[in-house]
Design a protein that fits this description.
279 residues, 3 domains, Pseudouridine synthase, four-stranded antiparallel β-sheet, 16 strands, alpha+beta, ten-stranded mixed β-sheet, elongated
Amino acid sequence: MTDTQIELHVETGNEEIKAVNLLARHCSLSRGQLKKSMKNGALWLERKGHVQRLRRADRVLKPGDVLHLYYDARIQQQAPAEAVLISDEGDYSVWFKPPGMYSQGSKWGDHCSLPRWAEQHLKPQRNAFIVHRLDRAASGLMLLAHTKAAAAKLSGLFRTRGVIKRYRVRVHGRFCSETICIDTPLDGKPARSRVVFLAYDQDRDRSLLEVDIETGRKHQIRRHLAAMGFPVEGDRLYGGGEEQDLQLQSVYLAFDCPLKGQRREYRLPEHLQAEPSGG
């Protein structure tokens, strides 16, 4: 079953029936597997043109409802890493996303994503909406909104470059300068990264850098540094590395809160930061 992938689309017809019973009629998965996949966000309910995840196995469907199951055994077998709450501000919260945790779910499930972790662990419980992303292999500070209004305002803040985002990065080689600005466009769009040299480990031939980004292009830091000849340690995509962990961590976020009008600054606690030596 480790390689099993099932994509199933089933309409209820004219009867009222529990979701798990309808699915069991049309696929070979056990009821236990179906219930687990539903809990993990792999089932979607379409009703009158509106589609949303359906987690309750005993949910009674109405005539005309359509179920969409996206089952991947490999994804269902994954266990979520443990995120750490840094600050709960009510309408939004700040978290430490560990390496390996997704910034958001997919149609195949969301149980290994930060928003789902937050929804299950925040007290009182609230919905969680993403307003920016970190690569799955990266770690560090992430902001989640808990109302649609907060999500819209905070997303706008990121979109208009109203958030200072700072990262600690370990790269191969001795970095060539104390401070440098990289403004090479990415995917035909402006991209700007400010890089500050912090330390060099001669034994391992690694440099520790601090990077501020003014734009948020896909894999911006990794692509900018790799193009200069300093790939991020552990970057299999742009650096050809075989290391397990990507040495890129979001350590600082600062912005003027669009909800309360106050200046907010969040720093990653030292005990969650990657070791400077890489040990």
